Amino acid sequence: MGTEVEAYLLLGGNEGSPVVTLSAAEDLIGERIGEVRARSRDHWTEPWGFEDPRLFLNRALCVATCLAPEVLLKEALAIEAQLRRKRVEGPRYTSRPIDIDVMFVGDAVLDLPGLKVPHPRMHQRTFALAPLADIGPALVHPLLGRSVLQLLNDLMPR
Q1: One CATH from 2.40.50.140, 3.30.70.560, 3.40.50.300, 3.90.1150.10 for 5-155
Q2: For residues 69, 73, 79 and 84, what is the CA-based torsion angle, rounded to 10 degrees?
Q3: 39-48 residue pLDDT tens
């Protein structure tokens, strides 16, 4: 355990009952990772990187945590497994009951096996930036020097 930081997590899923699963994930995050301080509205989006008729539900959380980033990731993966997420070899982008991605951990910049913070592709994904903009529009991406809201606006059609 270390100093408390605010971590921003993105939850998503499109299998089963996403509303129920994401709510269960949020409860488990509150128990195992830290206090949920802010929650975005729910965003229903098309699958990204593959085709499936089921929409994804995406939700961002701001969580106050004292966990080291590696431990935070371990807990997030354990929560996914508890909620029946099975990680298998094969296509990278597939349907799933739950996905918990670590977007930011304070102002940390990390490049570790299995964990890159800030999330390396968030700036390319409206489905990640829109929920983050609900709860942290002024958060600045430490590598790109742009706020979440600016990054989201960059992706909007002109």
Answers
A1: 3.30.70.560
A2: 170
A3: 999 999 887 6
